[in-house]
Amino acid sequence: MFLRRILTGGGGLAALRAARAVKETTGIVGLEVAPNAREVLIGLYTRTLKEIEAVPKDEGYRKAVESFTNHRLQICQEEDDWKRIEDRIGCGQVEELIEEAEDELKLIAKMIVRFNVILCLNEWQNGIRGVSLMTTNVR
């Protein structure tokens, strides 16, 4: 019905093009248009939420990442149009959001290593204290 209205006088071909706007360029040197940006973002945000589970629940970093990622994922699932996604998220073009999500995944991997190192150091420190206390008590 929508298509029939457009083609029979509701705006013609121009209205049809506007209804399905195609981005030709990002206007940013080196940043190519992602024709399937919505699907890419949904995949990246889903992966981010899965990978952030490796960070301890009480960490502020995890809470922040889960919060903004859930918000952005919800928008991407609700909207089909890349322009509406950009407008509702309000943090740049979808291609920039893709780069940001990819960078966040790299950061999550580094944070997991960091938290594991801290955990190991704490366990090691506690182990040394336990050994030294045991040796002192053995006398």
Automatic annotation (TrEMBL):
GO terms for cellular component: mitochondrial inner membrane. The keyword Membrane applies. One of its GO terms (biological process) is respiratory electron transport chain. It is a peripheral membrane protein. It is found in: Mitochondrion inner membrane. Keywords: Electron transport, Membrane, Mitochondrion, Mitochondrion inner membrane, Respiratory chain, Transport. Its main location: mitochondrion. Belongs to the complex I NDUFA5 subunit family. PANTHER family: NADH DEHYDROGENASE [UBIQUINONE] 1 ALPHA SUBCOMPLEX SUBUNIT 5, NADH-UBIQUINONE OXIDOREDUCTASE 13 KD-B SUBUNIT. This is Uncharacterized protein. It comes from Zea mays.
